[in-house]
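Appendix C: a fully annotated inverse folding record. The material below is reproduced so that readers can follow the format used throughout the book. The structure is listed first as tokens, followed by the designed sequence.
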């Protein structure tokens, strides 16, 4: 039913791991397990110098963010270079025609619904929706 509450120490360890992302890298590389890291953290505490090597330095973080940003912009620019303006113009023309056709179709339905009166309800029966609920 409800989600089981985690022990407060486990919650603190989760926050600790978020602040030390290189721990996850070591777990993914199968150098150590999270259980081993948890036990060391529990015994040594958060302030032990052992944990310094697992912190991501701000310079590394900003450098990785710059690399991601430059890769993203590079991908966008290469995609824009590959676009053929003639094909783009042709696609836009066809889309414009399709939208125009839809607008004409909708306009025809709107004029038909205005011209055709809806069936009248009997005076002794209140108006009901499809599911049998009365309208307010």
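Designed amino acids, in order:
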């Amino acid at each position: 039913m409800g989600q089981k509450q985690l022990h407060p120490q486990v919650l603190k360890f989760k926050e600790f791991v978020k602040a030390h992302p290189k721990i996850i890298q070591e777990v993914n590389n199968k150098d150590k397990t999270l259980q081993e890291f948890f036990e060391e953290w529990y015994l040594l505490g958060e302030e032990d110098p052992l944990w310094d090597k697992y912190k991501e330095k701000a310079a590394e973080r900003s450098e990785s963010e710059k690399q991601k940003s430059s890769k993203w912009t590079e991908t966008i620019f290469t995609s824009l270079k590959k676009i053929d303006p003639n094909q783009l113009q042709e696609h836009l023309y066809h889309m414009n025609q399709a939208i125009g056709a839809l607008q004409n179709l909708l306009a025809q339905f709107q004029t038909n619904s205005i011209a055709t009166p809806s069936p009248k309800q009997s005076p002794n029966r209140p108006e009901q929706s499809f599911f049998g609920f009365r309208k307010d």
